[in-house]
Write the structure tokens for this entry.
Amino acid sequence: MTVGIWILGDQLWQQQSALESCIENQATTPIILIESLAHVQERRYHRQKLILIWSAMRHFAEVLKVNGWHVTYETAASFENPLQKWIEHHSIDELRVMEPADRPFSEFLDQLNLPCKLVIMPNNHFLWSTSDFATWAASRKSLLMESFYREGRKRFEILMEDKQPVGGQWNFDKENRKPAKGKISPPLPLTFEPDEITQAVIDEVEAADYPTFGTSDSFAWAVTRAQALEVLADFVRDRLPTFGPYQDAMVTGEETLWHALLSPYLNLGLLQPMEVIEAVETAYQENPQLPLNSVEGLIRQVLGWREYMRGLYHHVDADYPSRNYFEHHQPLPDFFWDGNTPMNCLHQTLDTLKRTGYAHHIQRLMLLANFALIAGLSPQAVEDWFHSTFIDAYDWVMQTNVIGMGLFADGGMLSTKPYAASANYIHKMSDYCQGCQYDHKSRIGENACPFNFFYWDFLDRHREKLSAQGRMNFILKNLDKMSADERHAIRQQAQDWHREMA
């Protein structure tokens, strides 16, 4: 019997389950990787994401060849034709594929009419299997991330001492909300010059005749496992000590601050979650002077949020992507694509996104998603945009992050209240308001910040639903302090803004 392996573009690890299952026969096991042009035209993807994935795939194929695997690499209009021909050419009886992380691709595999047996191998790019998560969820009345995170700490014995958390508490998030005021000097991120393979991909993407987003001329991401490991080492050595306190800060001209920039590599398989966690924990053990809030904060992102989002993605009902708790239907403004908006906070973030494919988690949550939430934008349009434009975006990443956490469109499955905020939060956590034409203090009027009138209009429009979220009642009382005329003026200004954008 001839067994073949199909490696998907986000499964670039030599120990992934399909490869591991054939390690003893690698010299005679045919492997295929396929770049599908039809697949990447389903959305207006960021150019740098296409470059990253295709370059990483091509580099990975070369590594496999050096290590003795028999590799076929195809670039085609779709997956089906090259896959069928390859199966027939090698007389393959059984095709092994590691379980896709995304549901749509799993459904695609189910619909394939192949001339051989298809075997789906367990996905070992995550710490929790989907069945383990389902077992955990079945024992819970609510599925809050904090409970899941604590269970993960115990299960994998991370930052634990005698069944208790190191430092006496599970979460140091309150220490990680400092604005970066005054002169700061975060280390420059580790970047890489495109090699011959990457440059060829850049040229192909720049010559593409299908719609894309962003620019590619500043591409400097890691494209191999060796380079990704360098990024991890650089973060632990130079960025981790100050990562925690300022992980929520936003500063003009500082695109990465002390953030790790590891998510694109984790999501491709170039890095594995446990090796990231262990690298950070080991650094703390070897140097107890490292701030525990920085160490715990990074581990919570990987062991907590990343695993939690993936687990929920496979746990929720099939209708989850279409949920719209607040019944928001406003279209996505054009400035989400071109960055041309006088709101300086959004302009700065969108400009960075266009040039790099990246923005850190607070820019995503408290600027982009927050604005989309309070302005009443369609959750499905917003999720599709996030999926298109971010270099680390996949279906499993963005469904729960955007629909649930960012836009509260699931009605509170992920969080106990919406992440809605006025310009006051942006002014506190950034310097963006200093360079903006709008007044961060004004709720109505020509110079009023849209974050303000949209925020109060959001609270007013959805007061009944929000009052059911106990954590919102305190802020809702402030609506009663406003006159009917002011609330009407806020509502009118919000409506006028949408008309001008139409």
The domain at 3-121 is CATH 3.40.50.620 (Rossmann fold). The mean pLDDT is 96.
